[in-house]
Write a structure and sequence with these properties.
Radius of gyration: 22 Å
Order of helices and strands: HHHHHHH
Helix content: over 70%
Largest sheet: none
Number of helices: 7
């Protein structure tokens, strides 16, 4: 508040406005996505939500496969003993391949820049650039998903795959180009700010 010259009262008012605006925006988006495809289907798989739903239903109905739960606990203990982060291992285990592959490629790019010899300040700049670019890709994917849901609800057919199909080779080429742009953005020099 000190930086922008706001009193604590005005900060609280601003926070309430932000909470209400985001609640309506997120609620509207969730309603739109559910109207377009529904959750847990082929178009909108929502693996985390489906997993939580299965756990809650299993506990409430008393038919949770406890043998599998205890097997998962045992695997988590073994993975922790080996020294692998359990959460990263679990996410890689239950997410589908089309979601875990981009995380793996991003991790490999990060590993490359972590192993490369450079100054600490330069390494921090490169990590910041990579996080910024990757966050932009994730946000852009979310916005495109919302637009596609809007088109689906309005029954606007934008399926270009009927006329153009790149196939697997085209997908791999596009993915390689996307990874290349990530590396280019990471290597970008920061502009010095005038002080």
């Amino acid at each position: 508040g000190y930086i922008v010259g706001a009193t604590p009262y005005r900060q609280q008012v601003g926070e309430f406005i932000g909470v209400f605006a985001s609640a309506f925006a997120v609620g509207g988006v969730l309603y739109l996505l559910n109207s377009a495809w529904g959750y847990g289907g082929k178009q909108l798989p929502a693996p985390q939500a489906t997993l939580m739903k299965l756990v809650v239903e299993g506990v409430m109905n008393g038919n949770l496969p406890w043998a599998l739960v205890f097997a998962g606990v045992f695997i988590a203990i073994v993975v922790e003993i080996i020294g692998i982060p359990v959460l990263a291992f679990a996410v890689g285990l239950y997410l589908p391949i089309y979601l875990s592959t981009p995380m793996m490629v991003g991790g490999l790019v990060r590993l490359y820049f972590d192993k490369k010899k450079m100054e600490d300040s330069e390494r921090r700049d490169k990590i910041e650039n990579g996080l910024l670019y990757s966050s932009g890709l994730i946000a852009g994917e979310g916005i495109i998903g919302i637009l596609l849901a809007l088109f689906a609800v309005l029954h606007i057919d934008l399926n270009i795959s009927k006329t153009i199909s790149l196939g697997n080779i085209g997908g791999v080429i596009f993915y390689a180009l996307l990874t290349w742009t990530l590396v280019l953005f990471i290597n970008r020099k920061k502009k010095s700010s005038i002080q």
